[in-house]
């Protein structure tokens, strides 16, 4: 990491890993705490509600017992209910009014009423309850008829005979309870001045089926709020304390087991890069850290330590391989220069000879190739032309090419015919060909004064011939076996009569077999078309036309084989020599 990159990273870094983990842990703990709070509050509220129901039920039971000990509540209830049922619906509709209360005026003067009033009021005061009262549920009119209600809160004063409608569910809960069930008769509703009220009762009744009274007590949500608020405060304080403690512990733990080891590994990696740049080959950047966390961080350090050792070995091997590659490439470049230097490449080749003009080129697919061409004067009247293609590529093919070129040239300068040149060269090559390589060769000897071309073909491509009055066309000459294939082979010879203006084009298989990106070959037809773009052009221009056509065909495809071409134009004997 460069200093610029490191400064940029530090400036962009918002939080450390420990801070992120701590924040995530605290957020997770708070989320769990919030969910726990909702669940806990729900459970606590349920338990608290059950406790209030039980406590209120016990209170009403106590009130029932005391009421029956000090008075006769059933008789009082019968009196109030009797008056209530004797009223018309219109008279009942005036409940709560002074006129309505006059119907029940004598009830408040009864001793049982005054005794019950005092008992219920004292119990309410002693137990800090707002309302403990005595009432009767009347199924016929679906109403609750108040008998004794000492509640003096504004808007809640109920005189004997006052009534209020109740729904069927409340009626069934209280009127159907036989005292033996598992539950406690209670009913919750929303109404009046309190947003939520729960009524709990204990029956006082006539077993003969007459009016049944209930000692009832109400508690509201306000009475539970204090306990729930206290629970909520304690829970929040505990959650905050636990979360803060967890965040502190996790931050310290992450600092010790993760952040510091990772920072140490990062520093070691930075030192490793800097030492590499400075040439220091020390291999103890990671192994010297001694990280013992027993988790993936320790494993990472072990992997980095092993990577450092492997990279060191790899770099040593790479250095040696690079040096070797440089050496080999240097030698290949030298071999390529030697090979190019062995081919005649100075044009015009024979500037003082006006009887003919020739041009040749060899473009290897690799650094060095296996194709070659050659041309030289055997004497003043005979020009030798050679083009060949060695099997294989690379250094072995180049060495075999050099040897073959020398052997062919040595036999040609001795004045032999083309067939004899190939025969004797083949025997010389076969005599020491342990790699069983071979070479295809076309060799021709032009008698300059007459235009007679004697030639022989050892498995090479057909030449292309242009007569003075036509374009280029393939000349299917006589083929014989390749050189180096079998000792003692005989080679067929043929003659071509060249007239002034005739041209001869010879090439290796890299020309028709050049491939485009889709694997399609250039083929002979395209080669002939390229030759006939301007058949009257100079040999150099003709080779340029063919090479340009190949380039347009193969486009970006890699060169598949060596491209070697030679073109000869015969212009006729010099008039001065006649």
Description:
With 578 residues, this protein is an alpha+beta fold. It has three domains: 59-227, Beta-Lactamase, CATH 3.30.450; 281-342, no CATH class; 344-577, PPM-type phosphatase domain (Phosphatase 2c, domain 1), CATH 3.60.40.10. Helix content is 47%, strand content 19%. It contains 13 helices and 17 strands. The mean pLDDT is 84.
Q: In brief, what are we looking at here?
A:
By secondary structure, this protein is α+β, with helices and mostly antiparallel strands. 47% of the residues lie in helices and 19% in strands.
Tag the structure with descriptive keywords:
578 residues, alpha+beta, Beta-Lactamase, Phosphatase 2c, domain 1, 3 domains, six-stranded antiparallel beta sheet, six-stranded mixed beta sheet, 13 helices, 17 strands, 19% strand, rod-shaped
Topology:
Blueprint: H1 3-12, H2 17-70, H3 73-85, H4 89-92, H5 98-102, H6 111-126, E1 131-138, E2 143-148, E3 163-165, H7 168-175, E4 186-191, E5 194-205, E6 212-220, H8 221-278, H9 296-342, E7 356-363, E8 371-379, E9 382-390, H10 394-412, H11 418-430, E10 439-447, E11 452-458, E12 464-466, E13 472-474, E14 479-480, E15 493-497, E16 503-507, H12 523-531, H13 539-554, E17 563-570
Parallel strand pairs: 11-14
Antiparallel strand pairs: 1-2, 1-6, 2-3, 4-5, 5-6, 7-17, 8-9, 9-10, 10-11, 11-15, 12-13, 12-16, 16-17
Helix pairs in contact: 2-6, 2-8, 8-9, 10-11, 12-13
